[in-house]
Amino acid sequence: MPEPILEIENLSKIYAGGFKALDCVNLTINKGEIFALLGPNGAGKTTLIGAVCGLVRPTSGTIRAFGDDLAQGWRKARRKIGLVPQEIGVDMFDTVERQIAYSRGMFGSAPDKGRIEEVLRSLSLWDKRGEQVRTLSGGMKRRVLIAKALSHDPELLFLDEPTAGVDVELRRDMWRQIDILREQGVTIILTTHYIEEAEEMADRVGVIDKGRILLIDEKDAMMGRLGRTEASFTLAEPIFELPPGISSQTVGIQDGGRTITYRGGDGTGKGKQEVAELARKLIEAGIIFTALDQKESSLEDIFVGLVERSEAAA
């Protein structure tokens, strides 16, 4: 049975003026999983993270981490939580190594130069350890934030857009570090604009918009349930109606009769079979096509569709 490490129930946050940043959010995160929280700007992702990390006071609802109610035992639970925020907030005139050591001590962990070195080396910061943070590039400053979050060996790690606006090398280092943390059993919750990263790394995915959770599911199950196959046949000669036996529910005619389109399936391979069957029927009907383009829905396609439907329903 999965072991819950974070349990959020009916969590809401309403700011002065009436803006509802979180609207009755319910979410359970299991020990050792990687959970990707996707949503457009202003959806409530950072507010939700801030509520768990003690940076935002919820209006209502409960948060339990490691079995403790954060309203009662926040400090105890917070020692086990790491956060890589979007904004760079460090002492720019301090050295890299001192900043990491300070973060470790701030969470009650004993000094450990070996561990600090290990973290700095894993993020290619060891050679910069004696330099002031202000002298570093933007990408290196981002690495310092990640190192600070890892310094006290958290069991639950939040990554709030950790690779936004950084170079490819840092992104590669970041995901290499996540692989290591996964092997160590660290639970990771990340938000990202690079949806292909969530598609590759996450065990489960949640979609949030306007402070409401639209969907939570295992990534593979979500792809299977909401994924679709799209295909486009470019015809040698235009047609103006579909041959008998071809369903107009999934097949249509476009571009003045020069293109036949298909959209269907369920992410399980059904769509590919139906495209092959459609191609066979077109050939049998004497309809010649000169090109066939086919693609499967990505997690990004599913995400965009969910948010668009949410916007339309608002």
Write up this protein.
This protein has 314 residues and is an alpha/beta fold. The protein folds into two domains: 4-223, P-loop containing nucleotide triphosphate hydrolases (Rossmann fold, 3-Layer(aba) Sandwich); 228-296, Alpha-Beta Plaits. It has ten helices and 14 strands. The protein has helices at 45-52, 70-78, 96-106, 113-122, 138-150, 168-183, 195-201, 219-226, 270-284, 299-313, and strands at residues 4-14, 20-30, 34-38, 60-65, 68-69, 81-84, 156-160, 187-191, 204-209, 212-218, 229-235, 251-254, 259-264, 289-296. The strands form three sheets. Strands 6-7-8-3-9-10 form a six-stranded mixed beta sheet, with helices on both faces. Helix 3 (96-106) runs parallel beside helix 5 (138-150). The model has no long low-confidence stretch (mean pLDDT 85).
Which residues form runs of ≥5 with pLDDT under 50?
none
Major sheet attributes? 6 strands, mixed
| Top-tier CATH class of the largest domain | Alpha Beta
Helicity range: 25-40%
Cα(first) to Cα(last) distance is 37 Å
What's the helix count? 10
Total domain modules: 2
**SSE series:** EEEHEEHEHHHEHEHEEHEEEHEH
CATH topology of the largest domain, by name, is Rossmann fold
Rg over C-alpha atoms, rounded to the nearest angstrom: 24 Å
Strand arrangement within the widest β-sheet reads 6-7-8-3-9-10
Shape: elongated
Q: Care to count the β-strands?
A: 14
> What structural class do helix, strand and pairing data support?
alpha/beta
- Which architecture of the largest domain would the CATH scheme give at its second level? 3-Layer(aba) Sandwich
Beta-strand content bin: 25-35%
CATH superfamily of the largest domain, by name, is P-loop containing nucleotide triphosphate hydrolases
Mean pLDDT: 85
